[in-house]
Specification:
The chain has about 120 residues and is mainly β. The protein is built from no helices and 11 strands. The strands form 2 sheets. Strands 2, 4, 5, 6, 9, 10 and 11 form a 7-stranded mixed sheet that branches. The chain is globular, with a radius of gyration of 13 Å.
């Protein structure tokens, strides 16, 4: 069973950048690997996802133009580059892997394996 471990979170100022990493062990990623986030008192929300060869990549509107998802299959690692961070980006960020298609990839229920998350705090 694949295990996912996120890293790279931290506390930054608005306008700064962070790169999150999601490493898989004990197996490989499924077809899609996605990033989600959850702020206190809110639902876990979709941020971005990419398929195994990065041909299909989807972003939430909140991420478009600022965040970039990428994967290095040789390293069994997926990244989320986050630029121009805002205070509203403050949340715990999770990576997950599963099988999906098109708009279904926005749905967290399509993802079978999840990491424990990494906290991102953005101060204004």
């Amino acid at each position: 069973q694949v295990q996912l471990v996120e890293s790279g979170g931290g506390s930054v100022q608005a306008g700064d950048s962070l790169r999150l990493s999601c490493a898989a062990s004990g197996g490989t990623f499924n077809q899609y690997v996605g990033w989600f986030r959850q702020a206190p008192g809110k639902e876990r929300e979709f941020i971005a996802t990419t398929n195994w060869n990065s041909v299909y990549t989807y972003y939430a509107d909140s991420a478009k133009g600022r965040f970039t998802i990428s994967r290095d299959n040789a390293k069994n690692t997926v990244y989320l580059q986050m630029n121009s961070l805002k205070s509203e980006d403050t949340a715990k960020y999770y990576c997950a892997t599963g099988y999906c298609a098109n708009s279904g990839c926005f749905d967290k229920r399509r993802y079978d394996y999840w990491g424990q998350g990494t906290q991102v705090t953005v101060s204004s």
